[in-house]
Amino acid sequence: MMELGTNGYAAPAAGRKGGAAYDVPEGVDIRGRYDAEFAKILTRDALQFVADLQREFRNHIKYAMECRKEAKMRYNNGGLPGFDPATRYVREGEWDCAPVPPAVADRMVEITGPTERKMVINALNSGAKVFMADFEDALSPSWENLIRGHVNLKDAVDGTISFHDKARNRVYKLNDQTAKLFVRPRGWHLPEAHIFIDGEPATGCLVDFGLYFYHNFAAFRRTQGAGSGPFFYLPKMEHSREAKIWNSVFERAEKMAGIENGSIRATVLIETLPAVFQMDEILYELRDHSVGLNCGRWDYIFSYVKTFQAHPDRLLPDRVLVGMNQHFMRSYSDLLIRTCHRRGVHAMGGMAAQIPIRDDPVANEAALELVRKDKQREVRAGHDGTWAAHPGLIPAIMEVFTNNMRNSPHQIHSMKREDAANVTEEDLIQKPVGVRTMEGLRLNTRVGIQYLAAWLTGTGSVPLYHLMEDAATAEISRVQNWQWLKYGVELDGDGLGLKVNLDLFGRVVEEEMARIEREVGQERFKKGMYKEARKIFTRQCTAPMLDDFLTLDAYNRIVIHHPKGLSKL
């Protein structure tokens, strides 16, 4: 294991000195490996732009993170999240967001995935209306993944991206017609420990946004945005003050680029419980730059547990039972639709995580039918579009939305959902119902360890048991195990009557590790980081205090610092 420096990040690795180095502005220190291709992204001017953003907004970001800690203390002392009386005038006021740009009026199906080169090409060619290229939950943010991702997106926006799959002897290129590109930077809480600005790690999302925007805004507006854009997805927000920072970042970027205010557009993921009470306020802060909200439902479930970690009366049932049929989940979706349509923007539905089951047509059709029913529920509720994890789902989902929406690109004006004006604070936090089982505990453990093992080796989007798992589903596994252990819950759904304790959990971990080894094979198990993942996952599940994010702890394991002047090895 690499040695950690005093800042909590990996100390510089020993290596050969001499050779090429990045040309950086004053106060910027790049500690990631030098690569001539990376240097085309990490130019002096692009890094200056990132540094300017960091210097202008770092204190605002630090304050927002302190406010998160204060809210957490309030909830841990018995408080409940709710609507803010001080911003009632925003919720009740008559105002609209800026009109949706024609380039993104139709968002019926959006595909998401990491910024890996072949994935970018396939997603843009998938037949989806939008591809959300992800620097967040679907990406393990190693230096290689991060900067290579920027190389790939620049080539995609330029229209020059290609990929030669030597194993299949096939060359992948863009079709004439492609999905519109949205980019999701990391959340406010994540650092970028390979780039230091004025002696401290850069803010991850400002690196992601700044590098992408600087290199691509002009070409994007010409080739994809029809004079508008670029387009973004914004994750993990908990309060409108965080949206206000993003709005200021956008204004700063537009000024730098010399483009009109409101050019940049973003959809905010409502994927934390506190944010559901701030939807109007978030849209209001971003009203010149908004193109809607999205139901980030997996992270939302994770956030429910995290918000109520000190509330033993709000325990979750097995994660497979926490779907949109739960009252608190349905209320969240309904209020999001009403809020977005009232303000003139898209209300996007949640992820269909299923992936095709190629060797079992019967099981594959059953899985597709579940997807169709979920999407039928979404479109009839009033959603304007939805997410898919795999290109194989797109035709079925597109058919559901097209049949229900007929010739309209969205339902912003036709499905106002005024009935959802009656959704209350209690509706949004109502206790979930359902049983807890040994299989639920086992599945959480198996998925959590396997996901983390993949993440540590550079993969952030992982197919497991016919579902595409990302950091959000691993987070649910972790916090649910932690919650059940902390409160010694009884597994009341399988007739066993066992109580979850450290002994039972230890046994489950041992047995599930053995099962993982059987499933993946001995050779892959030995080469993989399953034992390291087990240590991290077990420690997080049994910690006295719940860690805010699984990936914050694991991030230290993938940071590799190189001495200045270390050239490509």
From TrEMBL:
Location within or outside the cell: Glyoxysome
Organism superkingdom: Eukaryota
Signal sequence annotation: none
Metabolic or biological pathway, per its Swiss-Prot or TrEMBL entry: Carbohydrate metabolism; glyoxylate cycle; (S)-malate from isocitrate: step 2/2
InterPro entries to which the protein is assigned, alphabetical: Malate_synth_C_sf (IPR044856), Malate_synth_sf (IPR011076), Malate_synthA (IPR006252), Malate_synthase_CS (IPR019830), Malate_synthase_TIM (IPR001465), MS_C (IPR048355), MS_N (IPR048356), MS_N_TIM-barrel_dom (IPR046363)
Broad enzyme group: transferase
CDD domains named in the record: malate_synt_A
Biological process annotations from GO: glyoxylate cycle; tricarboxylic acid cycle
PROSITE patterns to which the protein is assigned, alphabetical: MALATE_SYNTHASE
Active site: 184, 470
Catalytic activity: glyoxylate + acetyl-CoA + H2O = (S)-malate + CoA + H(+)
Domain Malate synthase N-terminal: 26-88
Gene Ontology cellular-component annotations: glyoxysome
Domain named Malate synthase TIM barrel: residues: 180-430
Matches recorded under PANTHER family: MALATE SYNTHASE, MALATE SYNTHASE 1-RELATED
NCBIfam families: malate_syn_A
Family: Belongs to the malate synthase family.
Protein's name in the database: Malate synthase
Species assigned in the record: Escallonia rubra
Lineage, highest ranks first: Eukaryota, Viridiplantae, Streptophyta, Embryophyta, Tracheophyta
